[in-house]
Amino acid sequence: MDLDALARNARVLADVAGTPWLAVVKADAYGHGIEAVATTCLAAGATWLGTAQVAEALHLRALLDARGTSRPEPGLDAVPTPDAPRLLAWLVPFLTPEQAAAPGSALRQALAAGIDLSASTPAQVEALAAAARAEGRPARVHLKADTGMSRAGAVAEDVPALAAAARRAEEEGFLDVVGLWSHLSRADEPDSGSTEEHLARFRAAEASVRAAGLTPRVRHLAATGGLLWHPDARLDLVRAGIGLYGLSPDPSVATSSELGLSPVMRLEAPLVQVKRIPAGQAVSYGGTWTAPTDRWLGLVPLGYSDGLPRAAASAGPVSVGGLRTTVVGKVCMDQVVIDLGPAADTEGEPVPAPAAPGDVAVLWGDPGAPGADPATPTADDWAAVCGTINYEIVTRLGARVPRVTAGDGLPASH
Ligand SMILES: *Cc1c(COP(=O)(O)O)cnc(C)c1O
């Protein structure tokens, strides 16, 4: 994980956005390792860190506490800083008020840890208020509107009831409405009109929340796609995920290099074995790939439990010492076989192996990084051959793959 690339990406996105930004570090920072990513993003100017799950935010808070990172003042007008960032978790488990008030409930833990939470329904507001009453401190809440994605959030006709519930809890001293937020569903289709519709619905939700007597200070709507392609959606805060990791939200709109972003993750492993097989020999489970000629093969100790999709059978691209090749045959749980080319020339004379055990096979990374093999495949290449998106390729990196960091994430001193 190239922390210098991460820091550069953060600056590129922050410059485009021109607003405060939240670093999205859910799913172990998209597979990159939450602690190194969070601290690098704070050093690069993030004032907010966001996760989906409350459990992820609690884990992050413990990591930050252990590093001596301060918590911001609880007050509504206290502005967070990189030294005292705010944490937000938006996928809050549903609890009844009784469950929420029980000692050690997820909501009480979140409040005690100073984590902002999202609420989409009056029932969620009531659970937060119950947890806050039990914990003896108001819950900091971001009300979520559904502006067209139909995932979490209150649809237009339900916003007044959500706002009324929040207002009641505010008056009782159990809740502080910090923000109003939503999420774009088609930010990577700049000409679809979808984002304009989201924005119109967002404005309507804001009017309805204000009419209930609430003043959400932090309005946020844009993830990386909105940040890049919809200036009107940047509002008070942007939530940057995939772009921080150097990947484009949609390479068909603009590639990462067109956006000036550098992939942070490089997945590599030293070859365990190199061997020759004769023409006609089948490879891996089911024998789905057969050597067309005498062939050199390499064995890579990474499989589907490490995050290589099975859809990459005989397709996943790999580079070894300047050679660009692919996985051959099925992806196994722990290993894949790669083709290293013909073992004999057209006259039948032996061809030496182009790689040796211990040589490093690169599955995905940044072909443009200084000193990188230009044959290096990208997470986008893997996504294309597997029929998925770069997000899924990096976030599925398995737990047993060691995350090794390079760089310190600080601006170059020269
Ligand atoms: C994952 C997520 C983001 C980040 O999206 P990117 O496209 O990776 O920038 C932002 N907001 C919410 C609500 C998310 O779930």
UniProtKB/TrEMBL annotation:
InterPro entries: Ala_racemase, Ala_racemase/Decarboxylase_C, Ala_racemase_C, Ala_racemase_N, Ala_racemase_pyridoxalP-BS, PLP-binding_barrel. It comes from the Bacteria. Belongs to the alanine racemase family. This is Alanine racemase. The keyword GTP-binding does not apply. Catalyzes the interconversion of L-alanine and D-alanine. May also act on other amino acids. Coiled coil: none annotated. The active site is at residues 26, 285. GO terms for cellular component: cytosol. GO terms for biological process: D-alanine biosynthetic process; peptidoglycan biosynthetic process. Keywords: Isomerase, Pyridoxal phosphate. Its cofactor is pyridoxal 5'-phosphate. Its EC number is 5.1.1.1. It catalyses: L-alanine = D-alanine. Pathway: Amino-acid biosynthesis; D-alanine biosynthesis; D-alanine from L-alanine: step 1/1. GO terms for molecular function: alanine racemase activity; pyridoxal phosphate binding. NCBIfam families: alr.
